[in-house]
Amino acid sequence: MTEDRLTTHETKAARLMVLYRLRLEGRLDGLSDVDLAAAFETRRETIWKDKQALKRADKLYQEIMARQPWADKPGVTVAEAASTLGCDPETLTGMIRGGLVNARKKRGRWRIPTAEVERLKR
After folding, report:
1. Structural domain boundaries of the chain?
2. Is the torsion defined by CA of 80, 85, 91, 97 positive or negative?
3. pLDDT score for 3
């Protein structure tokens, strides 16, 4: 029988996922690189590099999110935008679904960037 072995890339990806999960749960701070290396059966330097990769991924995520039109402001609800524009909320929702208005869903509700509301005012 052949043993299922992970490739080097799969092993690294799995290790990064575990480190990310530990960080989210707040347990990564209490573990030393030596302890983690022993748990993963790898070298301490490998764990250090993986932690650096997580930091770079966080930085990249922040940079990407900062470029989004709604990053600096959460936007307004459909009802607030409709009130500002003097139209019916259902009409505005239809325009969003039709692609005429830039909006995104957050927690199941449409949010319209304030810049988009200003564009619609003109």
Report:
1. 8-66, 76-121
2. negative
3. 57
